[in-house]
Write a structure and sequence with these properties.
There is one protein chain. The protein has four helices and ten strands, in the order ββαββαααββββββ. By secondary structure, the chain is of the alpha+beta class. The strands form four sheets. Strands 1-2-10 form a three-stranded antiparallel beta sheet. Strands 7-8-9 form a three-stranded antiparallel beta sheet. The protein has a two-stranded antiparallel sheet with strand order 3-4.
Length: about 200
């Protein structure tokens, strides 16, 4: 299914493919150790929620190396949203300060209740992410935040767009690297979009 907002058509679910477009398997991590090893070697990686063996409604988590791999993971006609795509979505559903609220799914959030959640049908699930810790990358913030890879076309790099249970905004953040955290170990969902 698809959702139309402004000049874009959005997928109704997070991306769930585990093969590149040419049919090659995206290396699949079934543990923190496997995820770390793939990221240490700067290889593509994907995982299901909590490194389980089967997919959930949350979709698949991808590292940056799977996102930028030339074999591609985004189905033909679709793309990874840019910051401008997310801004356009926000304008279409009530503005950036209220878009996060309208995007949230009505279930799954740890301590969140609202009569406004779900009004856009975007159904953002609080799937958290695989955090950026170099020493021990693991799932975090499940139930509290929904994250997606985003192409920042102004700086030609990837950032994160997210919705938090603690607010109503659609938020964006740079991905940071330091001695303890590194974007190479981050895993997030993808919500595909296409232009009308």
């Amino acid at each position: 299914m698809e959702l139309q907002f402004g000049k874009n058509t959005w997928a109704t679910d997070n991306l769930s493919i585990i093969n590149f477009l040419n049919g090659d398997k995206i290396p699949f991590a079934k543990s923190k150790k496997e995820w770390k090893k793939l990221c240490d070697n700067k290889l593509p990686a994907c995982a299901y929620l909590n490194f389980k063996d089967k997919i959930t409604k949350d979709g698949v988590y991808y590292n940056i190396f799977s996102i930028v791999d030339q074999r591609g993971i985004i189905p033909k006609g679709w793309k990874i949203p840019t910051t401008k795509d997310w801004d356009s979505l926000a304008r279409a559903i009530g503005g950036k300060k209220n878009a996060g609220e309208a995007m949230k799914s009505t279930k799954g959030w740890v301590s969140y209740k609202s009569t406004e959640a779900g009004s856009s049908k975007f159904a953002a699930l609080p799937s958290g992410n695989i955090d950026t810790s170099i020493d021990d990358p693991d799932f975090s913030l499940i139930g509290s935040l929904a994250y997606w890879w985003t192409k920042d076309i102004e700086n030609n790099r990837f950032v994160t767009t997210y919705v938090s249970q603690y607010g109503t905004e659609l938020l964006r953040s740079s991905i940071f690297s330091d001695d303890y955290n590194n974007e190479a170990y981050l895993g997030m969902n993808v919500r595909c979009v296409k232009d009308l």
